[in-house]
Amino acid sequence: MTTTLVRGVGDVVRGFPKPTRGAEGDPGLFGPGSLAWRINAESILLMGGGRALLMQVAHPMVAAGVADHSDFTVAPFDRLWRTVDTALTVIFGDSSQWQAAVERVHGIHDAVNGERHGARYSALDPELLLWVHATLVDSSIEAYARLVRPIPLAVRERYYREMRRMGTAFGVPEALHPATYTDFRAYLTRTMSTLHIGDECRSVARLVLSPPAPLVLWPAGIASGLLSVGLLPARMRRELGLRWNGATERAFSAAAATVRSTLPLLPDPIRRWPHAREAERRMGFM
């Protein structure tokens, strides 16, 4: 039994993202002093990643692409860590590292296309790229605000404007980005109001929330799911068919409060992603 549990946990952690050394003094896409570095260094933002993915698959065409081209039942944690590593490399890597990561993603997306109900979809569609990018930015803001500390409007504005660089790097045309954070929030509200969330979206969302995992990790999975779902807009929770009531709301609030009070007590190697520490070393801060 012990050997089985250790092997199961080993399967989960073996792909944990680890940065490679970058070119000394190369700030990369953002660099020191950026909010992108400060906010995205927090490893708890992984909970925001779950929220972002749920928001993404609420879009029927994104859900179709996931259903046709992805399988969450095959090595789900390897897939998770590759996705996390790519995002962290774009944010914290040097110039050659982040550009190579973007090119890899573009190559994968080039093959993701298909059809649903007579309409074509493509992972390279600028409108879909904007939606995916918007969910990541908004989820990072919400996760940080609920699980780390509140974010004033002026800081949200600056962070949003910085993160537009990342969206542009992944193929969102510069002119398609909402101009300000207020415009960005209006875009999110408008887009969510037009989404027709069907059975395929709900099915993919269930797979996102319940990937195969060793039994010993179920408590962590339940906590992660609670935080990811709790961070979602209420309307999207309802339309994705995710159960939520007063008891789950209270459990979410208690879990969020526990995270906020615990984070300052954690050692830096646990609290922050290793990519952030490598970026600081590269820039001579360590």
Would you kindly provide a written description of the structure presented here, covering whatever features stand out?
The protein is mainly α and 286 residues long. The chain has one domain (18-282). 65% of the residues lie in helices and 3% in strands. The chain has a two-stranded antiparallel ribbon with strand order 1-2. It is globular and about 55 Å long. The termini are far apart. Residues 1-10 and 212-220 have low confidence and may be disordered.
In brief:
The protein has helices at residues 2-13, 35-40, 46-57, 60-69, 76-92, 95-109, 126-147, 153-169, 181-194, 199-209, 218-230, 234-239, 246-262, 268-271, 274-282, and strands at residues 113-116, 119-122. It is an all-alpha fold. Strands 1-2 form a two-stranded antiparallel ribbon.
Features:
286 residues, mainly alpha, two-stranded antiparallel ribbon, 15 helices, 65% helix
Write the layout of secondary structure elements.
Elements: H1 2-13, H2 35-40, H3 46-57, H4 60-69, H5 76-92, H6 95-109, E1 113-116, E2 119-122, H7 126-147, H8 153-169, H9 181-194, H10 199-209, H11 218-230, H12 234-239, H13 246-262, H14 268-271, H15 274-282
Main sheet specs: 2 strands, antiparallel
Low-confidence sequence ranges: 1-10, 212-220
Strand order of the largest sheet: 1-2
Which descriptor suits the 3D outline?
globular
What's the mean pLDDT score? 88
Broad structural category: mainly alpha
| Strand-residue proportion | under 5%
Q: Oligomeric state of the chains?
A: single chain
Give the N-terminus to C-terminus distance in angstroms.
42 Å
How many DSSP-defined strands? 2
Number of domains: 1
SSE order, one letter for each helix or strand: HHHHHHEEHHHHHHHHH
Fraction in helix: 55-70%
Instruction: Give the C-alpha Rg.
Output: 19 Å
Report the total helices.
15
